[in-house]
Design brief:
Two copies of one chain form a homodimer. Helices cover 35% and strands 21% of the residues of chain A. Chain A contains 13 helices and 18 strands. Chain A has helices spanning 2-20, 34-49, 52-63, 72-87, 146-150, 181-199, 241-251, 305-323, 346-354, 387-394, 416-421, 434-439, 452-471; strands at 92-100, 103-105, 109-115, 119-121, 123-125, 136-143, 161-165, 205-209, 236-239, 258-263, 266-268, 271-280, 289-295, 332-338, 362-367, 375-381, 403-405, 426-431. Chains A and B meet through helix 1, helix 3 and helix 7 of A and helix 1, helix 3 and helix 7 of B.
C-alpha cells in the first residue's frame, strides 16, 4: 500500500507539472484590460457552479423529447425554445420559417434471419429510406467496407440480394496524424451513399453495421440525404453492432444466409419548420452580433440529449449567463437554434439564404454538436490581426483544461461551418466526444447520459470566450 | 514523462509484491503427488491457449440464440447440446425430461406517457406476467424502494393506479462488509414480489426500474415466480433505466403523470423440457462423479451469451479438455445442463427429485452462472478432512489470479445450490461479474460481450480443479 501511495502521488505530481509546462498563462493586459479579464474570470467561475445548462437539457428532453424536423416533436420544440428564451431573460426572441421539401414517416422496422439459423435482427431504417412494400427476402452479400461494394462493377450482379456492409468504426486503424473522426467518416460513406451504390449493382436493399463505437443492441439511424435521379430507390437500414457480428458469424460458416426485412417507412410531402433565435442585445445595439449555434432537431429514437440537446442547452446557458451580468455586453449575442440539421442542414441553409446581405454583421460564430463533453482544444478561424488577441483571450479558458491551437483554420463546426465557409470568422471548441459516439442517433441518447460537471465546464468555456469577444471591439475578419 | 514512467513501474512493482505476499504457493507433494500436480499445470496452461469455450458459446448463440424453457429455442438447444457433447468426445450423453407446469408467451410490450408530456416508454413484461387486456391507463405512484410500497397498508389506496418502484441498483450504498450483490438482491424484491404486494393495495399494475447496473435503454426482464393464491393478478413490467429517470423527472414536477401500457403476455398450459447430461466416464467407472453445472435456458431478449452461455461453454469445455488427456481421470465428470433456471429452477428441482437416491454419488459440484468473467476467489464447502487437500489443490489455480478463501461455507451457486443444500460438497468460484450485471436479461446479452481471454481463464480454473478432484480418490463429504 505504501508503494502504491507513492506511485499515486508521483502520478499526481506529473499531472501538475504537465499543466505548468503548457506555457505562460499570464494575460497581457495591454491587450485585454485587467478589469475585463477579471469580469471574465468571475463569469467563468460562476458558470462552473451554475446548473442552468443541465436544467435546460433536462427540460428539453423531458418536456419535448424526440424532435425530427417535420414531426409533432418539432412543432413542440419551436414553442418550447421561444418560451425558454423568454424565461431566461433574452431581450429579443423570434423564429424564421424553414421549408422542408419532403417529410418522412419512420414506421416500423423488423427483420429476421430466416436461414440457416432463425434469429430476430434489430435494425432501423436510415433516414428517408423508402419502405420494403411488404416482406423483402434476400440472401446477404457481405462487403467489409464501402470501397469493397464500390469495387463491384455496376450492373445486376447483386440482383435479388441484400448488400451488407459490415464495416465497424472500431476496426478502423488510422494512419499517423489522422483523427479518430476519420473512422466515423469512413462509416458514413455507406450510410449516406450505400443505397445508391448498391442499387446500381442490382441489390434489392442495403443494410449496414451501425456507425458507432458502442456494442449495444441498438441500430444507429442517420443519413437522410435521399436518392439519386434515375437510380432505383432501394430500402436502406442499419443493424445493431451485436446483430452485425451475429450475421458475420453466420456468413463465415460459408453457406447462404437469408434475411427477411420489413420497413414501413414512407417519404411524404413538403412541410415546414423553423430556426429559433434568441438575442442578448448589446449596449451598442443589435446591428453586429456574435452567434452561438446548435441544432434544435434530433433523430427520433432517443430524446436527443447529447445530439444536440447539450448544444442547445450550453448555448442558451452561455448567453443567459452573460445576460445576467451587471450590464449588457458591448455587442449582441444571438443564439441560433437551427432546424433540420440531421436530415441535411435545412435550417442553416435557409438562414444563410435569408441573411446573405447581413452576413458581415456576424462577427464570430461557434457551434456545439458533439455532446456534453468538456472542451480540450480551442482553434480560431480569424484574421491575422485578431489572432494575437484571441490567443490572449484563450488564456482565460486555459484553467478549464483547454489547450490553444495556433492553426487558425477553424471554419465553425456542424451548421456553423456553412456560415464559416461563407466567410464568417469562427471558433472551433474541440470536445471530448467519446460518449457522443457511443450514444448519438440511438434510443440511448437520453438525459441520464448528461454529465452535469462536464456540461458546466462546456458552458463556462463558451460564456467566457464569447463574453470577451462581445466586449472587445474588434473586427475578427481582419 | 520520466516521472510518469517511474510511477508506472512502481505500480507494477507493487502489483508483483502484492502477488508474492498472497502466501507460499509451493504444493505439498505428500498431499498432491508431483506427477499429478504437473499434469494439472499442463492442463491449466493448455486451457489458457485453447479457444474451445469461446467456440462453444459462439456456436450456441449463433445456431440457437434465445431459449426460454418451453419455447422453440428450448427445443433447439436440447438437440444442440446433445450434438455438441458428442462432437466434443463425451463418453455418454443423455437427456432427462423435465415437466413445466405452465408456459408463457411474452407477446408485445408498449407503453407511453400520456401526460403531462407525451413520450414512448421502453418496457418489457416481467416473466409470467399476465397481459393488460388492451390498453391500461393509470396515474403513476412512485415508491423509492420495495419497502416504501410494502409500508402502504393493504387495501384499495392504489386503486386504478400504476405502482412505480424506482429503486436503482446504482443508488444502493452497502454497509461495511455487505457485498454489492446485496444491491441486486434488493432490486429483485420488487421484481419477484412487487405484483403481489401492489395488488394487495389495489394497484392496477406495477412497473419497476430495471434491475441492472447499466444505463442502456433496455428493460431487464426476470422473475417468473408467479402470482399468489387469492390475490388479483396484475400486469408487471420493467422500464429501462433511462425511461425510469424520465418518469422520475416528470413526477418531481409535482403534477399527475399518466401512463398507458399494453402487454399482450399470456400464461399458457403445461409443456416439457429437459436437462441434458454429458459424461466423461472415469477409468473407475460411472458410479461416482463430479458435476459441473450451468443452465441451458436463457431469457428471451438476447441470445443468452453471458447468462448462461458462458456457463454452458466453460463447463462443456473444462470437461472436454480433461477428456482430451492421455487417459480418463479416475472419477467420472458429468456436465449437467439444467432446464428452466430462469423461471424457477425447474430443471435442478426435477434432477434432485429423480436423483435423491444417488445424491451420495455426487462427489463435488460447482456451477457457472455469473457470465464469462475471470474467477477471483475460490471457496470450498467440503468436510473437515478434505479441507487441507482442497486448499492444496487451490495453489494450482492461484497463478490464474484466484485467491483461496478458508471460509469453507460454499453450497454451490445457482442451480447447484439446490444440490449443495441437499448435502453435496461444492466449490464456489467467485467471478468478476461486472459485465454480467450490465448485460444479462436484456437484448444486449449477445456473443460480442464475451471476452475470449477471460473465458479461457474461467475454463482453466474449472478444468484444473475438477481434474485434480477427479484424480484424488477422496470423499469430499468427510
Amino acid at each position: 500500500m505504501t508503494l502504491l501511495a507513492v506511485a499515486a502521488s508521483l502520478l499526481l505530481a506529473a499531472t501538475v507539472l504537465g499543466e505548468e509546462s503548457a506555457g505562460d498563462r499570464k494575460v497581457d493586459h495591454s491587450i485585454i484590460p485587467a478589469e475585463l479579464a477579471n469580469a471574465a474570470v468571475l463569469l467563468r467561475e460562476r458558470a462552473l457552479i451554475d446548473n442552468i445548462s443541465v436544467d435546460i437539457v433536462e427540460s428539453l428532453t423531458t418536456e419535448v423529447g424526440p424532435r425530427r424536423m417535420g414531426t409533432e416533436g418539432d412543432r413542440r420544440v419551436i414553442a418550447w425554445s421561444q418560451a425558454k428564451f423568454e424565461e431566461l431573460g433574452f431581450d429579443r426572441v423570434w423564429i424564421e420559417e424553414v421549408d422542408l421539401d419532403r417529410g418522412w414517416v419512420r414506421g416500423d422496422a423488423t427483420a429476421e434471419i430466416v436461414s440457416p439459423y432463425p434469429h430476430d435482427i434489430v435494425l432501423t431504417a436510415l433516414g428517408y429510406s423508402v419502405g420494403t412494400d411488404g416482406d423483402l427476402v434476400g440472401e446477404l452479400v457481405e462487403f467489409k467496407s464501402f470501397a469493397e461494394l464500390e469495387a463491384v462493377p455496376e450492373g445486376d450482379s447483386l440482383e435479388g440480394k441484400i448488400a451488407f456492409v459490415s464495416y465497424s468504426v472500431n476496426d478502423f486503424v488510422p494512419e499517423a496524424g489522422v483523427s479518430r473522426m476519420a473512422a466515423y467518416s469512413e462509416g458514413t460513406k455507406a450510410r449516406g451513399r450505400g443505397h445508391v451504390t448498391a442499387a446500381k449493382r442490382g441489390a434489392a436493399a442495403i443494410v449496414i453495421r451501425s456507425v458507432g463505437t458502442d456494442n449495444n443492441r441498438y441500430a444507429h439511424t442517420g443519413s437522410g440525404y435521399g436518392y439519386a435521379e434515375g437510380v432505383r430507390r432501394i430500402p436502406a437500414a442499419a443493424v445493431s453492432p451485436p446483430d452485425a457480428v451475429l450475421m458475420q458469424n453466420m456468413l463465415k460458416r460459408g453457406g447462404p444466409v437469408t434475411m427477411k426485412m420489413n420497413l414501413t417507412s414512407e417519404i411524404t410531402g413538403p412541410t415546414q419548420g423553423a430556426n429559433i433565435i434568441g438575442e442578448i442585445t448589446g449596449r451598442q445595439g443589435s446591428d453586429h452580433y456574435l452567434v452561438l449555434g446548435a441544432h434544435v432537431d434530433s433523430w427520433d429514437e432517443g430524446t436527443g440529449a447529447l445530439d444536440d440537446g447539450a448544444g442547445v442547452a450550453s448555448m442558451m446557458a452561455a448567453a443567459a449567463l452573460i445576460g445576467q451580468m451587471e450590464q449588457r455586453p458591448r455587442r449582441s449575442i444571438r443564439v441560433l437554434l437551427f432546424a433540420g440539421e440531421e436530415i441535411g442542414f435545412y435550417g442553416v441553409n435557409a438562414y444563410k439564404e435569408k441573411h446573405l446581405d447581413d452576413l458581415h454583421e456576424h462577427l464570430l460564430g461557434a457551434e456545439v454538436d458533439s455532446g456534453g463533453g468538456r472542451v480540450h482544444t480551442l482553434i480560431s478561424g480569424v484574421g491575422e490581426e485578431s489572432l494575437p488577441i484571441v490567443r490572449e483571450m484563450a488564456k482565460l479558458v486555459a484553467p478549464l483544461g483547454i489547450v490553444w491551437s495556433d492553426a487558425n483554420d477553424a471554419r465553425g463546426s456542424s451548421d456553423m461551418s456553412v456560415l464559416g465557409r461563407a466567410g464568417m470568422p469562427a471558433l472551433n471548441f474541440m470536445q471530448n466526444s467519446n460518449d457522443y459516439m457511443k450514444y448519438h442517433h440511438t434510443p440511448n441518447d437520453t438525459f441520464d447520459k448528461i454529465i452535469p460537471e462536464d456540461m458546466r465546464y462546456l458552458t463556462a468555456a463558451y460564456a467566457t470566450m464569447f463574453y470577451l469577444a462581445a466586449e472587445m471591439d474588434i473586427d475578427f475578419r481582419k
